[in-house]
Amino acid sequence: MTNHLLTQAQSLERRKFLRAAVLGAAILPLAACVGDGDSLAKQAREGNNKNYIAGDGSVEEYGPASRTAPVKISAVAYDGTTIESANWVGQATVLNFWYAACAPCRIEAPHLVELSKEFGSKAEFIGINVRDEKEAAEAFERNFGITYPSVQDTQGEIQLAMTQYVPLQAVPTTLVLDKQGRVAARILGVAEKSTLKALIDTVLTEAL
């Protein structure tokens, strides 16, 4: 019995060590994502949490059996694109909640741009802007070369609706929806590229 308990304890300590190593490796590349001239991004790397609700980069995955009903959104993006959640069936969908002065949002923006191009029609990327008016949001999109649509949600209607699916808790928050439009994963804080890519790949390999 004692040997069994020791084995369990050793296994738990090994899992903790491996998790810490993975998180540490994920944090290192962030400093290279945005140039030193971007003061807001520098602020995020310093961790002083100014002007945004901090997330720790934690990832929560939800197995198919524990997922809620499909997310329902109907809105018009800044560029005039009509966003209808009914059109998301059969592909992965990434919802990124952001705003222009959010320092971590500036760090993760290049990741999102690269992944949206990499996945193409296999994954729909949609931004949900929680604070900015149209001009500020579009300036951010031009600055980072963002071509996927973003919806203005300064009144919080979409954010409120999301509480029935999964709590957002931080800005930025990134949600990965499965082929049925259900929340399959949530990232609180900066969406590190390899992590987000793995989450998207996971839902793409699932049966519809």
Short structural description:
This protein is of the alpha/beta class. It has helices at residues 2-27, 39-46, 103-119, 134-144, 157-162, 193-205, and strands at residues 58-61, 74-76, 82-84, 92-98, 123-129, 150-152, 173-177, 183-188.
Protein architecture, described:
With about 210 residues, the protein is an alpha/beta fold. About 40% of the residues lie in helices and about 20% in strands. It has 6 helices and 8 strands, in the order H-H-E-E-E-E-H-E-H-E-H-E-E-H. It has helices at about 1-25, 40-45, 105-120, 135-145, 155-160, 195-205; strands at about 60, 75, 80-85, 90-100, 125-130, 150, 175, 185-190. The strands form 2 sheets. A 6-stranded mixed β-sheet has the order 1-8-7-4-5-6, covered by helices on one side. Strand 7 (about 175) and strand 8 (about 185-190) form a beta hairpin. Helix 2 crosses helix 3. The longest helix has 26 residues, at about 1-25.
Order of strands across the main sheet? 1-8-7-4-5-6
The percentage of residues in β strands lies in 15-25%
Secondary-structure element pattern, one letter each: HHEEEEHEHEHEEH
Secondary structure tally, helices? 6
Main sheet: strands, sense, barrel: 6 strands, mixed
Mean residue pLDDT: 81
Structural class comes to alpha/beta
List segments where confidence is low: pLDDT < 50 over at least 5 consecutive residues.
1-52
- Overall number of strands: 8
Helical residues, percent: 25-40%
Task: Determine the N-to-C terminus distance.
Answer: 45 Å
Categorize the overall geometry: globular
Radius of gyration, in angstroms, nearest whole number:
18 Å
Oligomeric composition of the shown chains: single chain
